[in-house]
DNA sequence: ATAACTAATAGTCAATTTGACCATATAATT
DNA sequence: AATTATATGGTCAAATTGACTATTAGTTAT
C-alpha cells in the first residue's frame, strides 16, 4: 500500500509553501529562505517543499517550515491552494499555501535542508520571488487585513505582556493606517479581551505604560464567534 | 513536457470536491451526486473528481461540476484543501474543496460522467457521505455563516428582483436563527446595496411587497471592503 | 360590504457605540 | 524648572442598535 509502504515517497504534483508574517518593532516582516538547490537555486523564496505519502498536509507544512528555517511550534493555518497550469515551470505543480503570524523576536532562524539562508524581510521590501510567490504573499496579506477586523489577533505575535500601544502598532502595521489612540484603547478594553498585569513597562524614556495580557478564554470565544473591529 | 503532452493525464494524488449550496423556498440545500463507478459506487457524495495536467484547479472544479451535474456558469470559490493521510481509503488523495451559493431554481440538473443521479438535498437531511465529505460540508457551512456576516451575499442566490423578506429568509437559513423584520429592513436599506424596482410582487394572498435588486457597484465595493452584519 | 386575517412598512425611544476631539497625568531629559 | 514624550482620562454630538408598537394595504371569509 503506497500510503505506508514508502514513507519517504513524495506526492510529485503537489507542494506546500509557507507564508510566515513576523512582527517586530512595529513592522511586519515575511520569512524568506534562499534555495540551495533546484531550479530556483540562489534565489529568495517562501519556505516550501514536498508532501510525503505518510504525513498529512498540515504535518508536511510544519515539517518543511521547521527543517528549512528552524521555526517550529507555531500555529500554521491554510491560506488556500494555487493551481494555475503555468505557475511552476516545466512540471505541473499545485501548491497549498499556509500562513502564520508570529513574534519575530521569539524565533532563532537556522537554515537547513534545501535552504542555504533564512531571513526576515520587511513586507514592503520583498523582492521579486520565483513562481507565484509574490501573488501568494499578496493574497496572504489581504487575508490578514480581513482577519484582523473580524477575529482577535496577536496571541502569537505579541510578547506575553504588552502595552496597548504595542497592540495598536500591530493593527496599524497590518491595516497600513493610523488609528486614534484613545478610541483604540476604549474599543479594545471594552471587549474584555485584555487583563491588566498591574505592572508597568520599564526602560522607557517617558511615562511607562501599563502591561496587559490576553484572556485566553475570551480570546478563543471571540475567535469562534467573530468580532467587529473598525476604527 | 508533461504539462501539455498528455492532455487527459490526471494528477493522481489530488482531487476536487464541490460543495454547492442552493437556496429555495427559504431553505438551504446541498447538491449531491450518486456515483456510478469507483469505490463509492451507488453512494451519494459531493460532486468531485480528478484534475487534468493541462487545466488549472479552478477550471477542473468547473468542468467536474458541469459534467457531473449539469450545473455551470457559477462562481466557484475555493474553500480549502483536506489532506489527512487516511481520508481516502487505499490511496493517498488530497482534495481541494470548492463551494458556491446559487439559486436552486435556476439550474436544471442532469447527471453525467461518473454520476448516475444528481439531487438537491436539504442541508439538515444530508445522509452519511463517504470519505470526509460530511466534514467538508460542515466546514463549508461554518465558512458560510462567517461570510454572511462580513460580506454581502445573495447576488447569485436570489432572483434578479426580490423582496426584503426573500433576503431575510436567506440570512435566516444560513444563520439558523430568526431576525427582527423592521430592524433587518432598516439595516439592509441603509447600506445602499438595494435599488428599488418600483414594482410589487404578484400572486401573493396578502399585501404585496416591493421588489428590489442589487446595486452591483455597491455590492462589489462592499465585498472588497467588507461589512458588518449583526442582527 | 364588512370583518378578519396576513404580511408589509413606518415609526418610537432609550441605551449604546462611534468619531473627533481636548485635557490631564506621569515619567524622563534639558 | 521647563520641556518633551507618551499614557491615560474625559467630553459630546451624531449615529446605530435592539426591542418594540402602530399603521397600511392587500386577501379571504362572513
What does this structure look like?
The structure is a homodimer of 231-residue chains. With 231 residues, chain A is α+β, with helices and mostly antiparallel strands. Chain A contains 6 helices and 9 strands, in the order αββββαβββαααββα. The first copy, chain A, has helices at residues 2-5, 57-69, 133-150, 164-175, 181-190, 216-225; strands spanning 10-24, 27-35, 44-45, 48-52, 77-82, 94-103, 115-122, 194-200, 210-214. In chain A, the strands form 2 sheets. In chain A, strands 1, 2, 3, 4, 5, 6 and 7 form a 7-stranded mixed sheet that branches. Chain A has a two-stranded antiparallel ribbon with strand order 8-9. In chain A, a hairpin with an 8-residue loop joins strand 2 and strand 3 (44-45). Chain A is elongated and about 55 Å long. The model of chain A has no long low-confidence stretch (mean pLDDT 93). The interface between A and B is medium-sized, with 32 and 32 residues. The first copy, chain A, binds a DNA duplex (30 and 30 nucleotides) through residues 163-165, 180-183, 185-187, 190, 204-210, 230-231.
Amino acid at each position: 500500500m503506497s500510503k505506508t509502504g514508502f514513507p519517504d515517497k513524495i506526492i510529485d504534483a503537489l507542494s506546500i509553501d509557507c507564508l510566515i508574517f513576523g512582527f517586530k518593532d512595529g513592522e511586519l516582516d515575511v520569512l524568506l529562505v534562499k534555495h540551495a538547490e533546484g531550479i530556483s537555486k540562489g534565489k529568495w523564496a517562501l519556505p516550501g517543499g514536498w508532501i510525503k505519502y505518510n504525513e498529512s498536509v498540515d504535518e508536511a507544512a510544519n515539517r518543511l517550515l521547521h527543517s528549512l528555517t528552524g521555526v517550529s511550534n507555531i500555529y500554521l493555518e491554510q491560506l488556500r491552494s494555487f493551481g494555475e497550469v503555468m505557475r511552476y515551470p516545466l512540471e505541473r505543480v499545485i501548491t497549498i499555501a499556509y500562513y502564520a503570524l508570529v513574534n519575530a523576536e521569539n524565533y532563532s532562524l537556522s537554515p537547513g535542508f534545501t535552504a542555504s539562508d533564512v531571513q526576515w524581510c520587511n513586507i514592503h521590501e520583498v523582492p521579486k520571488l520565483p513562481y507565484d510567490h509574490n501573488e501568494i504573499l499578496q493574497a496572504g496579506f489581504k487575508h490578514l487585513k480581513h482577519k484582523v477586523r473580524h477575529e482577535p489577533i496577536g496571541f502569537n505575535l505579541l510578547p506575553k505582556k504588552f502595552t496597548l500601544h504595542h497592540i495598536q502598532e500591530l493593527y496599524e502595521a497590518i491595516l497600513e493606517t493610523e488609528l486614534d489612540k484613545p478610541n483604540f484603547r476604549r474599543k479594545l478594553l471594552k471587549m474584555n479581551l485584555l487583563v491588566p498585569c498591574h505592572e508597568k513597562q520599564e526602560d522607557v524614556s517617558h511615562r511607562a505604560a501599563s502591561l496587559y495580557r490576553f484572556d485566553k478564554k475570551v480570546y478563543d470565544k471571540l475567535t469562534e464567534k467573530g468580532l467587529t473591529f473598525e476604527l
